Amino acid sequence: MNKYLPGRDFAKKKDAEDPLRSFAGRFYKPAGTIYMDGNSLGLMSRDAEETLMNAVSAWKNDAIDIWGKDGYLTYHDRLGALCAPLIGADPEEVTIGGSTTVNIHTAIASFYHPVPGRNRILVDDLNFPTDRYAVCSEIAIHGYDPEECLKTVASRDGRYIYEDDIIEAMTEDVCMVLLPSALYRSAQLIDMQKIADAARQRGITVGFDLCHSIGAVPHDFSKIQPDFAVWCTYKYLNAGPGAVAGLYINKKHFGRSGMAGWWGNDKETQFDLRPDFEPAQNAGGWQIGTASILSMAPLEGSLKLYAEAGIDRLRAKSLDLTGYLMELINERLSGYGFSIGSPREDERRTGHVALVHEDAVRINAAMKDCGILPDFRYPDVIRLAPVPLYTSYTEVYDMVEKTVRIMEEKLYEKYENKRGTVA
Q1: pLDDT computed for residue 336 by the predictor
Q2: What is d(CA 107, CA 140) in angstroms, rounded to the nearest whole number?
Q3: What are the residues facing 124 on neighbouring strands?
Q4: In the chain, what are the helix, strand and coil shares in percent, each to the nearest 5?
């Protein structure tokens, strides 16, 4: 029996019964717009605004005492502790700072120890390209040829990662694996436990990029036990454009940072300004330069909001919203040439739905002019992210009906078949 009924009244009923419905009122939503791009840039919350203004006030009123009196010297550790429950890590295993790509460089510099015959880093061919750029750069910095030492596992179908193929490629010449927890196009959630277990059995360092899952899916790193993980905070975590990133370091590696900087020094001796680096014995030891407080501050409000809402409740609503969206796509849009490029199984899907159409770039443009904000991913995917903190079932229903109108009236035909500079 189908649990989703047709009609807008059903969507309104779901909204009325939603235990998380009050959280939407704490976000600034673009007027007259159905926002479906929270997997690319999350909306600003009043909670994030408040903690940002607290930091501005501390700087304004206390000047240099912002570090001591206001406690911002260890802000990265406090925010790491707030973030840790989202991935099932110990508080000291998480720190906040840098960017995703900088943190990839930091992790690889720490854990990539190539020797002849065991010098290859294993990646997939569907991950967001910045990971690959960083890997190739680090291979070259370590004196090896990326053409030889980057080992890429090709997807069977150009849409999904197949874990067995990754494991088969974990040969004796591989010393590190870096994979996404979720694919940015298809929203596939990979089996990190299976990958991590296989890597450990072979003595291979394993790291994950959580950019497209953190805040949408709870993880349990106490069980998965990767060596490291990185993520951004401006997507589902709603910390603002270009907000600082996150870094997980398994506690067995504490004190082994490969890129020293004064902000990673033990806080008890940091201001002794000694010539020799004394790394903090937590993930904070991987900090490099002075913390960007005003860029970090919105994350505090957002993480406290997450703690209030509960990641498990958010995951349940996310799966229901994306399930509802896929049902509407099947019922209302499949006749117009649309298909779904995301896994149907709950355990394999993260927080967005990949809507596939050969005319995706023009349809995406028409959707934006009709009051819908999705995003286009080359060559044929429109990503739709009904974020459970601020998206309603009624908005999902209305978005699909607007898209039906775009197709029926062929509104997309007036747009050029070319994406903009920012997709």
Answers
A1: 97
A2: 15
A3: 153
A4: 45, 15, 40
Is residue 185 predicted with pLDDT exceeding 90? yes
Burial of 83 (0-12, 13-18, 19+ CB in 10 A): buried
Question: Rounded CA gap, 271 and 67, in Å?
Answer: 12
- Token digits for 208? 């994950």
Distance in angstroms (rounded) separating the CA atoms of residues 78 and 81: 5
pLDDT (0 to 100) of residue 360 = 97
- Type and span of the H or E element at 50: helix 46-62
Q: For residue 102, what are the CA distances in angstroms to 74, 95, 97, 138, 293?
A: 20, 13, 9, 11, 17
| Predicted model pTM | 0.96
49-308 architecture in CATH? 3-Layer(aba) Sandwich (3.40)
pLDDT digits (tens, 9 = 90+) for 80-125: 999 999 999 999 999 999 999 999 999 999 999 999 999 999 999 9
- Give Cα separations from 256 to 101, 208, 253, 265, 373 (angstroms): 19, 18, 6, 12, 43
- Identify the bridge partners of residue 152 per DSSP, sorted by sequence position: 123
- Amino acid 417: pLDDT: 85
Burial class for 272, CB neighbours closer than 10 Å (0-12, 13-18, 19+): exposed
CA distance 321 to 332: 16
* Encoded tokens for 43: 């909306």
Specify the CATH class of 8-31+310-414 in words.
Answer: alpha beta
Predicted confidence (pLDDT) per residue in 36-76, tens digit = 999 999 999 999 999 999 999 999 999 999 999 999 999 99
Residue identified by tokens 């925010």 is 79
